[in-house]
Structures
1.
Amino acid sequence: WKRVTLRHLEAKYLTNQPITMVTAYDYPSGVHVDRAGIDICLVGDSVGMVVHGHDTTLPVTMDDMLLHCKAVARGADRPLLVGDLPFGSYEQSSQQAVASATRMLKEGGMDAVKMEGGGGSRVQAARAISEAGIAVMGHVGLTPQAISVLGGFRPQGRNLDSALQVLDHALALQSAGCFSIVLECVPSPIAAAVTAALKIPTIGIGAGPECSGQVLVYHDLLGMMQHPHYVKVTPKFSKQYASLGNVIQDALSQYREEVSSKAFPSPVHTPYRIDDEQTSAFL
Ligand code: KIV
Ligand code: NA
């Protein structure tokens, strides 16, 4: 596959092959995700937390997103590129949603967009985006942009009302034309039931093994942030496949020590020689 498209995702879904998705925020992470053969690369608004150091995703703007999308698009040629619509960029009206989604493709270089929530006006926005010719991914369960009304980053779908709402929203987003839906932080049996009820793939995060695919945040997966502040908010469901935070800290400390002790730069890292005798004569 030169470039993953919705048709490739559908083929995987129909043959029960799990769809792989990871976030990326800049050129190097885009390259890494591409080279790993990941199907979908999400430029997530989680960028506000893992890159910009905010406590929530709420401060992220459309302009922030576009800058990150452009950098990722330069690095990732093969995965389907999905740009996350940030808080405040699609809630007012379907027109606003289509305008923001259009910018994600025209300016950001994305192939598709993702938006949170499955209530009435969100479903209309999803339909409008899809009718404008832009592939749209839904996102239900824990929707971090709704932290103000959810009262924190809390799992959803843990009682009957909440579980039925997750299912309801997922079905509504499917009929609005979404090509896939992220299920975040819901109990595994609920995610399994929603996945079984839909005819489009679900992508789980903290939603157990029975979704049609899985997504993790780049920095979480790589164990990038291990300093005390971040450890508090590293989600329980995120497996760390590496401890890059430690690798980076060790490398930086070693560099500091070698500069302090004048072990760096050694002759190997001092490549330039004077190439005429006149200059040498001056020294
Ligand atoms: O912003 C993000 O990283 C996301 C994923 C966790 C799905 O929305
Ligand atoms: Na997001």
2.
Amino acid sequence: KSIKIFAPATVANLSCGFDVLGCCLDNVGDEMVISITADPGVKITKIEGANLPMETHKNVAGVAVEAFLKAYGENIGVAIEIYKKIKAGSGIGSSAASSSGAVWAVNHLLGNPFTTHELVKFAMEGEKLASGNAHADNVAPALLGGFTLVRSYDPLDIIKLHSPEDLVMTVIHPQIEVKTSDSRSVIKHKVTLKKAIHQWGNLGGFVAGLFTEDYDLIGRSLDDVIIEPLRSILIPEFNNVKNAAIAKGALGSGISGSGPSIFALSKGMKVANDVATAIQDIYEKTGIDFDIHISKIN
Ligand code: HSE
């Protein structure tokens, strides 16, 4: 038994929700072929498009499926082929796509012994291997689609949020690698009450904006006074890109996950395209290679 799947890219944090908010892009992602084999054990049989470890215990998809099988209680055989399109260290959930895609496919091939919500904790094992931290804000939207909120890590409580139809994401990926582990090391572990109040006000506003489809409220809430000031210095032209996106009508803009990708969220495809053109102009002058993605959230 075998299945070919699309494993989507995701944008985590969304400015106001560090480690808790994320959303799923519907046209950017990897392909994977997952098979149940007669030979017990998890094997990575092929990786194309990236130089990633083939050893199961060093591969994010491998460790995620091993965590799944441990809970499933049977040591069946699984073969994993990965066709990477999302570059590692891009900030759009490369490791999350592999780990969540693999566990989703194995669950499907076995007749869905686990709910999609239950798969999140297995996919998080891949994130732990990739970044040293089992964050769920990329794997949850990769598995559940749309926007998701990690209401709590302990116990794990993932909430699927509403996704307003007209939201469109523009993402620029400058081709410099920023490892999540490195961009986590620049963050301070203490925040002032003043900043915490600012941030949780915006997080509540963002979630309310999604459910009421209040695009202006979504835009007002896309603000980050805790993480962005520290991480943005790792990203060339960050402020220029963000300002240009907002000048072109984007609702808001910020760092995608741990960077270096920068996202801009817009209402409607026309604004998202105008934003893409403006930020492309900025990056063309830098000489740094880049990709731009425009995607609905689904
Ligand atoms: N919340 C994580 C971080 C996402 O910002 O480190 C990584 O994509």
